Amino acid sequence: MSSASPPRPGVSPLPASLRRAPWPLQAMSGHSGSSSDSDQDEVALSDATNDYVEQEETAPSDSEAEDTTRSRRRRQRIHFDVEQLQTVYHLPLKTAAERLGICEAALKRICRRNHISKWPYRQLSSVRRRIAELKDRRAVMLAGDGTNPLNLGTLTLLLTTSQLAALNIEVSRSIRLR
């Protein structure tokens, strides 16, 4: 029985220098047990090599097929400059990505490329809240007509002294009832 197996399609045969001998002593001596076996091995190897060369000529190689599929799958790189990103800074990251038609990871990658370390939505929201508070305070100061400001979280009410006194009475009653 010959040690050479028939070549499998798509698999290149190993060169003689890389093939292992079935017995370690044969590898050291440099020849196999009988001359007829070695002749058969050489013929089988040459046939397999010829078959492999013919397959290469008729069908495209695996690497060429992979290159064409990769080029089909790879999309063009999306380029956004800072001015385009500024139009969606007021939105959360997820909403901004949807508006631009890309995924969140791509938007983060674009931001890193443009040296934007953190999406500015939260900072802008904080600034917006501060501006609203300052406007409320300014309105109170400009009113100056005997009204008193009552801050309820983010809401500021302008109440006259009598309205403020009535509200204080109502609040104290509701606290006593509990």
UniProtKB/TrEMBL annotation:
Domain RWP-RK residues, every copy: 63-148
Compositional bias segments (type: Pro residues): 1-12
Highest rank taxon of the organism: Eukaryota
Region (Disordered): 1-75
MF terms (GO), sorted A to Z: DNA binding; DNA-binding transcription factor activity
InterPro entries: RKD-like, RWP-RK_dom
Name of one Pfam family that matches: RWP-RK
Keywords noted in UniProt: Coiled coil, DNA-binding, Nucleus, Transcription, Transcription regulation
Regions of compositional bias (Acidic residues) in chain numbering: 53-66
PANTHER family assigned to the protein according to its UniProt record, in alphabetical order: PROTEIN RKD4 (PTHR46373), RWP-RK DOMAIN-CONTAINING PROTEIN (PTHR46373:SF2)
Reported function: Putative transcription factor.
Protein name, entry field: RWP-RK domain-containing protein
The species this protein was found in: Phytophthora cactorum
